[in-house]
Recover the amino acids of this structure.
């Protein structure tokens, strides 16, 4: 395996450039290299960190925001990059994917009994704001005259 000096990702032998950052500064991966494991949000990264320490794997977390090479717009500035020693990369990868699945389950609506469904609430909120927006357009299109008349009637001034 090759190791990218710039972004610390490990990639397959024979690649001319790092698939992560396009750097050509690749060298054979050594056992002591801190290698990029994965990127996760703060909560998931914390959980992975704990699990790795429990398994005796020395890992380090770095804020995604400081990573200039990452152009993934889906990532948050608070996301954490997790690095582990290259020799533990495979074992750490297994642990991390297990934790990520757990976190995903915790966050899925079926996972917590189904009473609190922020997804549905969000959709209702969006529908309501669209309805309010349409109402405003209708008021503008059908003129303020009829609206004023309705308002007068409502206030008993008609
Ligand atoms: Zn790289």
């Amino acid at each position: 395996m090759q190791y990218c000096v710039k972004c610390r990702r490990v990639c397959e032998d024979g690649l001319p450039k790092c698939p992560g950052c396009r750097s050509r500064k690749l060298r054979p991966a050594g056992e002591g290299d801190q290698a990029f494991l994965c990127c996760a949000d703060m909560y998931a990264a914390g959980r992975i960190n704990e699990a790795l320490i429990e398994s005796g794997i020395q890992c380090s977390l770095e804020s995604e925001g400081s990573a200039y090479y990452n152009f993934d717009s889906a990532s948050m500035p608070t996301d954490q990059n997790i690095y582990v020693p290259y020799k533990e990369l495979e074992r750490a990868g297994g642990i991390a994917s297990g934790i990520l699945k757990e976190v995903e389950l915790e966050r899925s609506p079926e996972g917590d009994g189904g009473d609190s469904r922020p997804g549905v609430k969000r959709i209702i909120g969006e529908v309501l704001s669209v309805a309010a927006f349409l109402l405003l357009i209708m008021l503008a299109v059908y003129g303020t005259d009829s609206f004023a008349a309705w308002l007068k009637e409502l206030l008993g001034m008609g």
